[in-house]
Structures are given as structure tokens and as C-alpha cells.
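Reviewer 2 asked us to include a model.

Predict the structure of this chain.
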Amino acid sequence: MTLVLLYLVVLVLVGIVLFAVGSVLFGRGEVLPPLPQGTTATVLPASGVTGADVDAVKFTQTLRGYKTGEVDWVLDRLGREIDSLRGELDAVRAAHGVEDASLGDAQGAHALPPEYARDDT
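Predicted model (C-alpha cells):
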């Protein structure tokens, strides 16, 4: 029994020595500083957001999903971009005297294309 205990102690000591040598030789590598509080690695361009930009958005995962602050930021940013684009579109339509077809149409902009429309005849 003493021999087994001696082998176990020697094995633990060898493990400690190997770990110490590996730590000295390889170190911990380059340590990156943490992001400042209140910032995120989630990015979107300042204007002209495209579908590819939205597809490239990555959120930091937390224990219960994604960081709500990052998701809220992206949604707010996309909302402002959509509002800006709709404002520009309205200005162009007004400048050219084009009436918004979806306002006068009873079905509105959410109507299905004709190829998907249901034929009840």
C-alpha cells in the first residue's frame, strides 16, 4: 500500500513539474484587454446598411441567450436606417409627383404577388 501511495505522490510531483516547465516555456500568450464597459464588438456601418451587413451581425452570447443591449442597439440602428430611407423615398416621390401606390390600394404593401394569389373561381 505504501508503494502505491509513493507512486501516486511521485506522479503528482512529476505533473506539477511538467506544468511549471510548460508555463515558463510557453507562458499564457498575449493577453487582450477587456472591452471597456458599455461597448460591444457588434458593428454596423454608419449609413447604407445592406442585407449583407445585417447577415454579418454577431451578438455576444450570454447564459440566457444574447446580450439584450447589443440586440436593442442593432434594432434601433436598423430602425433609424429604415426611417431615413423611407424619408428619402418620400422626398423623391414628392419631388417627382409620384403618389404612393400602397396608400390608395386597399390591399396595401403586404399583398401577395399575383403568382401566389388565391384563385377562387
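The helical segments are 2-26, 51-55, 68-96, 101-104. Residues 103-112, 116-121 have pLDDT under 50 and may be disordered. We have added this to the supplementary material.
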